[in-house]
Amino acid sequence: FIGMVSHELKMPATSVKGLIQLIETKTTRSGDDKSARYLKVIDGQINKLTALIDDLHDATRIEAGVLQFHDEFFPFDDLVDEIVDAMQVTTERHTIVKEGGTRKRVYGDRNRLGQVLSNLLTNAIKYSPHSDKVIVRLTSDRKTVSCSVQDFGIGIAKDEQSHIFERFYREQGQKGVTVPGLGLGLYIARGIIERYDGRIWVESEEGEGSTVSFIYPLGDDKKQHATAQAEVQPSTHERR
Ligand code: ADP
Questions:
Q1: How many other C-beta atoms lie within 10 A of the C-beta of residue 18?
Q2: Which phi and psi (to 5°) does residue 231 adopt?
Q3: pTM of the model
Q4: Using one digit for the tens of pLDDT, what is the confidence trace for 58-88?
Q5: Angle at 195 between CA 193 and CA 199, to 5 degrees
Q6: Which residues sit with their C-beta closer than 6 Å to ligand 1?
């Protein structure tokens, strides 16, 4: 049902977005600044709506084991830089600090891994409204890369920590902080990481902050394994 609903919502949301951008261009050209400002707000809200619909869509596909992956080799640190830069512009309060690096090329779906890191950073920012720093740490060894995102926010109660990767799970009464969300970000992140035989986990102290980390294997057999599991055509890179 959720899959069907998200699919049906996607089309009209996409066409509304297209139309708003069209009107936005016309309004800006005509010099009507006030309307252009309103349209920017509407566009922002449509983006949020589309992101929610995409999350619903991805979550149902993970549940059914049919989420598509387009695997390729890529430098892991470049992806992290890209996502950190994109997330940095979404927050005025927080500074996202990068520590370490892996200098590794990994094999996997670049967009999906980017989605994992975006979800972790979105949470780190959302759940630390009174602090101003988020740290992204990168390490590696011969067989893996690891990435952790630490915030200094509200933290997660011990008995809740094992549940936060479940579908639609949201911690109740989190220190009076009301933050919007569907409870799908971490479920999707786990689905993506586990698809590549990685692991994702949380360490947290209530009132002190949380660190969500994942470890991602890059073994030589990785490419073969991932290709065998892919539900889609191999990427162009693969076919060459
Ligand atoms: P959402 O944030 O949309 O609710 P997620 O799946 O990303 O969904 O997270 C599930 C729940 O885990 C959140 O509702 C929140 O209670 C808790 N959580 C996740 N990340 C953090 C964090 N960095 N700090 C505190 N709580 C968190």
A1: 10
A2: -90, 0
A3: 0.87
A4: 999 999 999 999 999 999 999 999 999 999 9
A5: 40
A6: 119, 123-124, 127, 151, 153-156, 164, 169-171, 174, 181-187, 210
